[in-house]
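In response to reviewer comment 3 from the previous cycle, which asked for concrete evidence that the modeling workflow produces usable outputs, we include below a single protein chain processed end to end. The sequence was submitted unchanged, and the resulting structure tokens are shown without manual editing.
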Amino acid sequence: MQMAKVLGTVVSTQKEPTLRGSKFLLLQFIDEEGSPVAGYEVAADCVGAGIDEWVLVTRGSAARIAPGSENRPIDALVVGIIDTVNVENRLIYSKKDDPYG
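The workflow returned the following structure tokens.
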């Protein structure tokens, strides 16, 4: 899994039929300090994440293990909304302290 920040949403009115009803998010990957790293991803969302939230995203075959995703052409899936990140006894991120969270 990787950490990412939700930058926005992606809307697609024409898509593969098994993707109907799916919510798609535009993600910016972040490192353990919360700094952006190279690479963006469009991912399906199964947890109801919102813009500016930090999330956990899984990719590849792991994205199709979630119930309901087994037979869908999904390569990236938001599987968690991050509450806190601690690195070496330092609080890097706390959703409750995030003015957007």
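The chain is about 0% helix and 50% strand. We consider this sufficient to address the reviewer's concern, and the full set will be provided in the supplementary archive.
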